[in-house]
């Protein structure tokens, strides 16, 4: 919580300098920009944008061959780890998300919707973002079946996720074709999509369809890759 709050303060004053030079950058005013910063800090660990999800444990089980035990259990491997990751995400939202966001709301003139409907729509978008985030990271994990160590792939995807999710800057700020490309990638479902709903910059239904489409596509591809990967399970040393 302390780290997220400290980085939130750094970003607030960095963004303030940028917005002072270019007011309403990306369609956000100063208050909306401040909300975006603290929302990013609240969702960073929740959505495991920079790592910290269940992927580390699952990659280790694949590396050691312990995943063979998981495959014998009367539970689907993908759904088992999706449930575990959702539990982790909700815990992080409450444990590391609420306090930094509340600090930002109390100490800075942020924009907060007053109607419950907007907050409800926002939380639905966050739930869909959790599923999309798991779908991306599950595909990264499955690379371990071939590479035996998915650390390098994970780090590359984390860097890409920071850039394409809006953690560094809102995707609305990205110019021209670059902005159009990053907004159709799955990472835009993580931070940018819920933020736009909370800030009144997006239609909830259209956002849900976009997120749900990516969730279904990622989970579907993950299912196919899992099916191929589990045919080559190797227990190290035996």
From TrEMBL:
It comes from the Bacteria. Keywords: Membrane, Transmembrane, Transmembrane helix. InterPro entries: ABC-2_transporter-like. The chain crosses the membrane at residues 93-112, 118-148, 157-178. The keyword Transmembrane applies. PANTHER family: INTEGRAL MEMBRANE PROTEIN (PTHR36832:SF2), SLR1174 PROTEIN-RELATED (PTHR36832). This is ABC-2 type transport system permease protein. It comes from Streptomyces griseochromogenes.
